Amino acid sequence: MSEYLGEFEQIVLLAIVRLEEGAYGVPIRHEIEKRTDRRVSIGALYSTLDRLEGKGFVHSWFADATPQRGGRSKRYFRLLPEGAEALARSKAMLDRMWQGVKVKGGFHA
Amino acid sequence: MPDHPPRVAEWLLRWLLTGRDGDVIAGDLRETYAVRGGGRLWYWIQVTTCVRIWFSPYRRAIPDLRQDLHYALRVIRRNPGYAIAAILCLALGIGVNSTVFSLLDGMYFRMLPVPRAGHIVAIDRDGSMPVFWRDYLGLRGDLHAFTGVTTAVARGTFMDVERFNFEITAEAVSANYADILGVKPVVGRWFMPTDESPGAEPPVVISSGIWKTYFHRDPSVAGKYVRIENQWYRIVGVAPANFRGVSPPVEIDAWLPLVTFPIFRPQLADPRDPGPTVNLIGRLAAHETVAHAGAEMAVADTRLRQAYPNVKRYITPMTTHVFRGITSPESRRTMRAIAMLLLAVVVIVLLIACVNVANLLLSRAAVRQREMALRRSLGASHGRLIRQGLAESLILAVGGAVLGILFGGWTDRVLSSWLPASIPQSVLRGIYLEMNWRVAAFTAGVALICAVLFSLVPALEGSSVDLLAALKTDARSGRAGRSRQRDSYVVVQVALSLVLLIAAGLLLRALQRTSKINPGFATDRRVYIRLFAPERDFTFDASTRLFTRLLGEARSLPGVRDATLSFAVLGFTDGECVSTVRNVAPSHVNLNVVEPNYFQVMDLPLIRGRDFSSYDQPHSPRVIIVNETMARQRWPGEEALGKTVWLGCGGKFPPVRAEVVGVVRDSKVGALDEVPHPFFYESRYQEGWTQFFALILHTRGDPHAVARPLIQLARAAGPDLRVYDCALSASWWLCPFGAFDGRRLCWGRSAYWQSHCP
């Protein structure tokens, strides 16, 4: 699959990778907000997760209905090899784009 | 600090998102809510954002809809039988609805098929023609809100093309007609200002229909000649097929410059005569509005009223409006009753079709219960299953709509044949199905409503399956509920069918009753043909001789018992001014001019006095025979026989004295549902009207057998004798459709003419 990822899709996938086994809605959102310093709505997050699952980049399953969640299950996510490939491809693409680029402020890769 | 997030928001979230998705997100929010230590506003914002994104078409609906439609198509392909049945059922319902809507569209919304039709405006006085020709010529140069104003007057006449003579409706127009409307000819040209010059060869533009029927689409038709009103016209062009003139619902067969039309020649030749009244049609100038044009016309109207204070026509103010549908309120009123009746019937037909399809889908839902249970157990939400049902219904409805439109052409013809046969052919041709964006939008709307109507309950039913029971068995559970639902469908269906049945029954009963109404004269084994000997082709003596000869020849036709002549037929008559005291203002009374044997042939009983005789000649004392109502109303408590009346409306001719010599029984004149009116008869030998007669035959056997020889007999009299109409007297019962709005709708025409008369 040669589909490139959007910025938010990359962020979500990276959050899943970082969280490893504990990747469900609340920590994913927390991870993104902490690292990117931007607010993420739960609707936008699940919408992206559904899309990534539809593309075959992540796999999800239901588990752990805990009392503090009002007895409702969590939906865990795991990165699939296709997702890892898409991430790598997106990174490589961005790297290639950044190569030799100078922007105002003197930054260059 | 509240330890529980807003319950309403949480419930809303779970209800809207349905299934496990709703549960998971509610769980996540509850967990975060606890960690951040509350925040009801935050929670509400989260829920609202979530719902907004969830239902955004980009996120969910479009990919899911595609998936749903794909799946629905697969299901339909697997079970084509039920789909075909449903589509056919809907095609009928949607097709007839679209046809009737197209009729209403033609009545109210359809614009002329010309460029920038929204700029074409009609100017009238409450639907009647707004100005005389003379005044049109005066005002046309003073109007600045228009690029131009043109005129048109539709008139029924006859056209001769080689050996054919047929009835047409012609529009007498001003030379700028096509320039203003922007209509281009398919062959030749339209009119030029020089066509209106004195001495110019009269030109005519024919319709595509006439071009096809009588000239076989000959591209070199321009330059050929046709005869209209005894004048030769040179064909200069052919109008496009979709252009039907500016007199809807009448379809126009030919266009000619008004100044060349022989009917108007006497008026135009008289310098004191303002000329014929004409319709005004204008095209708005660029950047002008209808309101501004209307204001300008109102100023012109005021000037007209000041110039001609005694002209009654100018009392009603002029109105300017965009040319849409049928502009004449009279025609609209006449057609509205029929259109509304049709609409009511077709809506019920559509509802029955929907209930039928709903029933079909419900039985499918019973069969597919296992499938639904399986999909539910795999995580499909209620909403998803309902949407799946809707997708299937939508495919069926769209299939029905497409097929319905294809049926449209056919239902259009069925509709035309369903309409009262008394409506003239030119009007029937003017009622046509035209696919435009309004009809398409209506059809799409109807299809969508149908899809929702017939799918909702079966889809809900299918989505609320008892999972365990359905998976274990082959769908036994919930059977009672479903059967109740199907029962209720059957009840609705029977109720709707009953409404239709009762309506149809009432209609048939009404027709049956009208067919039993005694018109006062015999209709059994009577057949008639209406003939017109125009004054310009026949002198008084020539037409009298011709009709006498035709009468004699008709009597000698095989199978004919007797024949007579009558000016009036049911639904067609004329009037005369009658006063019982000389120099007292007369009142208008309808009359018939007849052959002396009319009362015997028509079995119309003479109650008192005598019949017309061969001694009643032009120079002998004038005699009339009155009906019972006239005798009773004009001479209450007295004997009408021997009384004197004065006939004539004044003007050039002084009133003529006449004596009442007989009283006949009342009979119907205008329509079968009328109350008796005063009416009188004159002998055709004493009355100067000798041009227009119905030749009525009383046959020994089947009157159909006589129809053809009768038409041949009339045709043999030459092309100058116009053959109007051929009908069985018994078919007059078709006329009282006019009773729907209490007005006369019978134009004395019959389907018999279309099927039997060449």
Walk me through the structure.
The complex is a heterodimer of chains A (109) and B (758). The model of chain A has no long low-confidence stretch (mean pLDDT 86). In chain A, 51% of the residues lie in helices and 16% in strands. Chain A is globular. In chain A, α1 (7-19) packs across α2 (25-36) and α1 (7-19) crosses α3. Chain A has helices spanning 7-19, 25-36, 42-54, 81-98, and strands spanning 58-66, 72-79. Chain A has a two-stranded antiparallel sheet. Chain A has one domain (7-98): Arc Repressor Mutant, subunit A (Orthogonal Bundle). The longest helix of chain A has 18 residues, at 81-98. Chain B is an alpha+beta fold. Chain B is built from 22 helices and 22 strands. In chain B, the strands form three sheets. Chain B has a six-stranded mixed β-barrel. In chain B, a hairpin with a 7-residue loop joins β14 (574-579) and β15 (587-594). In chain B, α5 packs antiparallel against α11 (329-367). The chains are: A alpha+beta (109), B alpha+beta (758). Chains A and B meet through α2, α3, β1 and β2 of A and α2, α3 and α4 of B.
How would you describe this structure in keywords?
heterodimer; A: alpha+beta; Arc Repressor Mutant, subunit A; two-stranded antiparallel ribbon; B: 758 residues; alpha+beta; 4 domains; 6-stranded mixed beta barrel
Main pleated sheet of chain A: 2 strands, antiparallel
Largest interface: A-B, 23 and 25 residues
* Average pLDDT reading of chain A: 86
Estimate the global geometry of chain B from the Cα principal axes: elongated
The overall average pLDDT of chain B, rounded, is 80
